[in-house]
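Researcher: Please predict.
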Amino acid sequence: MSDRIQQFRSHGSGAFRTEDFGRLGRNVIFEAGVLVFHPENIELGSNIYVGHNTMLKGYHRNRLVIGDNSWIGQGCFFHAGGGISIGQRVGVGPFVKIMSTRHVEAGPDVPILFAPTEALPVCIEDDCNIGMGAIIRPGVTIGRGSQIGAGAVVTRSVPAYSVAAGVPAKVLRSRL
């Protein structure tokens, strides 16, 4: 194992000004305790609610985009290193985690913390609902009109108009 010391640096306080966003529509509500990192890489449509203590990490590359008329519950964590696209009329329950990067195993001589990362986009299409506490993993697309159950861990893409739940999430039925 390497004896070198990994250098870390702060990403800032998470405090933000609305004028710093890449795009900010009308009637966007940020509740108390919302933290935003790299707002220049975040685009929010109109009529969006962002609940208490949510963290939006736009990252230094790629974008975090949330479409019109969407609702983000309290305590959510979105990390857009690989890009996150959330469509219109999407409900995201409290404490949902969406991650678009992951560590790639580099063998036993490299601590996982120092292993390279892989950035894979996450896409949640229009008219979806993501249940409380769900986790959406890198590279996943959730098709239009789909419902993800509370506490699900979504590791694979979900077809449009599906209901998926479980750990790992499995498609239970079609909504058509």
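Model: The chain has a mean pLDDT of 94.
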